[in-house]
Design brief:
This is BURP domain-containing protein BNM2A isoform X2. By secondary structure, the chain is an alpha+beta fold. The chain contains seven helices and 17 strands.
């Protein structure tokens, strides 16, 4: 199963990344912006237990050295995330559990939700999987550079000026929506943080799992080159639960550089690996999470309208797009 999942493990003390998929390495390097030779040379490879291990230094990680803060105003990101408006100008982030005043349940981008009763072989589900192009995706900045840029809704006018976006542009609206989502108070039992660097993402995971904890990363994998974003998918095999006592989910947000909305809940969650086959023959090894207690969620959350249920009446499950990440504790020996 591990070779078919996109998964890397983080050693709490050495920050080692155990790689089980070369495509995940490619995705992670692009996310880090490690294109330059100097950045690549900062990654040291060796073999351990027949897996490729990427060793990252515990401090002063070299990422995105080819891009300076002064160049950021030249970055023109896609506010709709390759045709998906589900984070941006139309809808609230579907993984934020607070209220929304403008969620349209007919928006196909919210077709990610299902119930635990749907977890059976042969079940057909209409699913929206956002397509991203890693080569054109935004990259993380090094922490020092990211921390030097204000990340606050009150700084919006200055940020728009800094990034050279007009006030009424789609990019300006996307930046405002991202900042607003990041500043919403967490629901009861939830810990959340919008991270602006890889270092801050790993620090957040450690704050949940423990400073010296080992933890793994799992993501969805696509097998095919289809550009279809929504179609019927059939569950091909019995879904496999990935046992995890805790989890941290990180969702990509539209911004001129990489920003992830990361959160963890004290309430029970179940993580599943689900093999899907699309109507067009595409295969997806999907990661999904089922939230067992939704009693604290806003009644306006998109999932309740899609599934036609009320908060707290049934677990809510949803698939993760390929550019969304789930961190889980590493299995103990």
């Amino acid at each position: 199963m591990m070779n078919r999942m996109r998964r890397i493990s983080i050693k709490g003390t050495e920050m080692g990344l155990a790689l089980a998929s070369s495509s995940l390495l490619f995705h992670l390097l692009l996310l880090m912006g490690a294109h330059g030779s100097e950045s690549r040379q900062s990654l040291k490879f060796h073999t351990q237990n027949e897996n490729n291990i990427i060793q990252l230094p515990s401090s002063n990680i070299k990422i995105n050295n080819h891009k300076k803060v002064d160049d950021l105003q030249l970055v023109k990101f896609d506010a709709k995330q390759d045709g998906d408006d589900h984070h941006g100008t139309k809808t609230e982030h579907v993984h934020s559990h607070g209220p929304s005043s403008h969620m349209d349940h007919m928006d196909p981008s919210v077709m990610l939700f299902f119930t635990m009763e749907d977890l059976i072989v042969g079940k057909i589900l209409p699913v929206y999987f956002r397509r991203t192009n890693p080569s054109t995706s935004t990259h993380f900045l090094p922490r020092e550079e990211a921390d030097s840029i204000p990340f606050s809704l009150k700084e919006l006018p200055n940020l728009l000026q800094f990034f050279s976006f007009s006030q009424n542009s789609p990019q300006a609206k996307a930046i405002e929506d991202t900042l607003r989502q990041c500043e919403i108070e967490p629901i009861k039992g939830e810990t959340k943080l919008c991270v602006t660097s890889l270092e801050s993402m790993l620090d957040f995971a450690r704050s949940v799992f423990g400073l010296n904890s080992d933890f793994n990363l799992v993501t969805t994998s696509y097998y095919g080159n289809s550009n279809i974003t929504i179609q019927n998918y059939t569950i091909l095999e019995v879904p496999k639960e990935i046992l995890a006592s805790k989890m941290v989910a990180c969702h990509s947000m539209p911004y001129p550089y990489a920003v992830f909305y990361c959160h963890s809940q004290k309430s029970e969650n179940k993580v599943y690996k689900i093999s899907l086959g699309g109507d067009n023959g595409e295969r997806v090894e999907a990661v999904a999470v089922c939230h067992m207690d939704t009693s604290q969620w806003s009644p306006n959350h998109a999932s309740f309208r899609v599934l036609r249920i009320m908060p707290g009446t049934s677990p809510v499950c949803h698939f993760f797009p390929v550019d969304n990440l789930i961190w889980i504790p590493a299995p103990t020996a």
